[in-house]
Write a structure and sequence with these properties.
With 359 residues, the chain is α+β, with helices and mostly antiparallel strands. The chain is 26% helix and 22% strand. Helix 2 packs across helix 5.
Amino acid sequence: MIETVFGEISSDFKSERLSDLCDRENGIQTGPFGSQLHQKDYVTDGTPIITVEHLGENRIIHDVDLPCVNESDRERLSKFALHPGDIVFSRVGSVDRRALVREEEDGWLFSGRCLRVRPDPNLIDSGYLSYFFGLPAFKKYINAIAVGATMPSLNTQILSNIPIYFPGLAEQRAIAGILGAFDDKIELNRRMNQTLEAIIATIFKSWFIDFDPVRIKAEKIECKLPTHILDLFPNSFEVSDLGNVPSGWDTCSFLNLAELLSGGTPKTSASEYWNGGIPWVSAKDVSNAKGSFILETEKTISDLGLNNSSTKILPPLTTIITARGTVGSYCLLGRAMAMNQTNYGLKVTTYPVSKETGW
């Protein structure tokens, strides 16, 4: 083993600068400047342009709104086209975010907030390289060398000089193949979860917003709902301040049932407060979760960061609602986490009970 900036690595591995492992003509490229691409250039249908919010964990996220450009702008910006095997980095902010470009993104473009790395396939496998970029030690290193006190940023020179450690090509491809199979399984499970969440949302709306089971009983409509489900609902409505609600159901402010929680941000200049083991939720994390459970966050804080700021640990199943930016986005915590001041937390303390059914 040898000691490197990433910790101990096998002495059998070779080492090269990233730029020496990339395509000679288009190896490391910054996205188009603002003067080359304006907001007014975007169209609803055309060639997609990915930016930082589309960079998932080694995968480009398709289910976040993708800006597009028309055919003439695509040709004008062809220098910034993506090909399978390219790796796209966040250039500003969360500089450790990256995603591998796959066949379905061939020909897409990338924005000025990103950097594109185009590995030479004769020298290094792009899948292996992208997983190398995903190592916790690499993420810690790239955050440390990024420039900018308030907003970390990367440039082509910084990326070019990063040392890369790698075995032979055959071994690289084997590593990438195994890890890629796990990634594909994770993505399949994510899509299945999205389908289940859509079904749950439909049922919730039917039962607790449209009150379909109550209407079915009140109007004696034939339905396929099991009797034990229908028995949980009353058979009539009563008037309330919110309109017609099921008989026996109460209405009140949610704050009568839940504790309102706030967050905070550890001092950004104190490196010892960051990159610890505590997930730290921002408004962007909540927006990306799209009403689902959130298990991982863009940034993490340390115990020191937690103890020296106004943020606090929130328990699983706390509802998080954004208060700034995209106001009103929400999600549920899938595990204990902290959050910043752009969000509010709602921790249920009292559960409502129907006067008629007792649930």
